[in-house]
Amino acid sequence: MVYRGPYKVRVEEKDVPSIEHPNDAIVRVTLAAICGSDLHLYHGMIPDTRVGHTFGHEFIGVVEEVGPSVRSLKPGDRVMVPFNIFCGSCFFCARGLYSNCHNVNPNATAIGGIYGYSHTCGGYDGGQAEYVRVPFADVGPSVIPEWMDDEDAVLLTDAVPTGYFGAQLGDIAEGDVVVVFGAGPVGLFAAKSAWLMGAGRVIVVDHLEYRLEVARTFAHAETCNFTEYDDIVVHMKRITDHLGADVAIDAVGAEADGNLLQHLAGAKFKLQGGSPVALNWAIDAVRKGGTVSVVGAYGPIFSAVKFGDALNKGLTLRMNQCPVKRQWPRLFEHVRNGYLKPSDIVTHRIPLDDIAEGYYMFSAKLDDCVKPLVVPNGQ
Questions:
Q1: Most confident of 41-45, 211-215, 259-263
Q2: Beta-carbon contacts of residue 347 (< 8 Å; ≥ 6 apart)
Q3: Cα separation values, 178 from 69, 70, 208, Å
Q4: Alpha carbon 235 to its chain's center
Q5: Which of 47, 42, 36 is nearest to 5 (CA)?
Q6: CA gap 300, 214 in Å, rounded
Q7: 0.90 exceeded by the pTM?
Q8: What does the DSSP assignment read for 61-89?
Q9: I need a surface site. Which of 181, 196, 256, 276 has the fewest CB within 10 A?
Q10: Which residues contact 360 (CB under 8 A, 6 or more apart)?
Q11: Which of 277, 283, 275 minimizes the C-alpha distance to 312?
């Protein structure tokens, strides 16, 4: 697929990528996904998203070719590729901060490298394609365990680890009340992960009833539809002994609904780096001394965040792009032991040829779409 401007993507023929560096691999994509954060690109919200760019940071595939320096992969290997591109040796990678790698993006002081996520994130073409070039192939990709399903594997390249990371950042203690803003895939996995980390109560907030139903059945969470209340923050206080939740997780990011002015300023007119409605609700809904975890994606410019409230409540704010590969050992065990079945939230499987319709459906929240996968032609 290629980007042709806001709300316009289409399928075009591009050259098959080639080895550009001895550490590269070429991967034939067997399965990809459309992420909620891809919609920020699709809606024209991410700076320096260029016409002709191929999106897609969630993908798995089969290694077709490797550069002469690659030692850990060989042609024919079935691999999963984390959405972060990272060198594995810089100051940040040495500390496990793979999403903050300093060597893979000219804009590295602001953000690391991400497949298919604009030239702000390095300009790497992504995996909503038949083939993709994978830099630092000895560092990022891993061979998929034989026992793991493809649909579980592709969701482990972003959505599952990002949700798990959101719960991790919340530093959840046993018995904590955790509120998750957003019932998209990341929010669902954050809610599910909160239980694994000892939460005593998990509440998911959204306005889409079909997604709240998934939060109840998949993540076993209580749910709140914020459109049913005059003030969702007041409601959250009422149901948490008027103290607030111990932990709040923002799994929505830049295109949050719920406040028309913020939505227009962030999502429509791009006057700020996104609509921080969910983040401000998280700040207000958590108790004094609580923790706010942010894994929803925001643009690089400022946003009107209620920082004074966070200060005066003594909150801990924790956030980052997820260092995916750091989460894999524990998540592999959770999947293998049956505590997590990522593919349970997959609702649509879209041929690559029909990806424009897939983006439209996902963007417009049609057909109860929760998580769409992309199947390359002929697979």
A1: 211-215
A2: 367, 368, 369, 370, 371, 372
A3: 46, 43, 20
A4: 28
A5: 42
A6: 31
A7: yes
A8: EEEEEE-TT--S--TT-EEEE-SEE--S-
A9: 196
A10: 366
A11: 283
Residue type, 229: Y
Joined together, the tokens standing for residue 184 give 């998209």
Pure H helices in 156-276: 159-169, 185-196, 209-217, 232-238, 260-263
d(CA 101, CA 345): 31
Burial profile 253-271: b = 16 or more Cβ within 10 angstroms, e = fewer: bbbbbbbeebbebbbeebe
Which tokens go with 169? 């950042």
Give the integer Cα–Cα distance in Å for 164 and 196: 9
- Token pair listed for 232: 């969702």
| Angstrom distance (rounded) from CA 288 to CA 268 | 33
DSSP, residue by residue, 291-316:
EEEE-S---SS-----HHHHHHTT-E
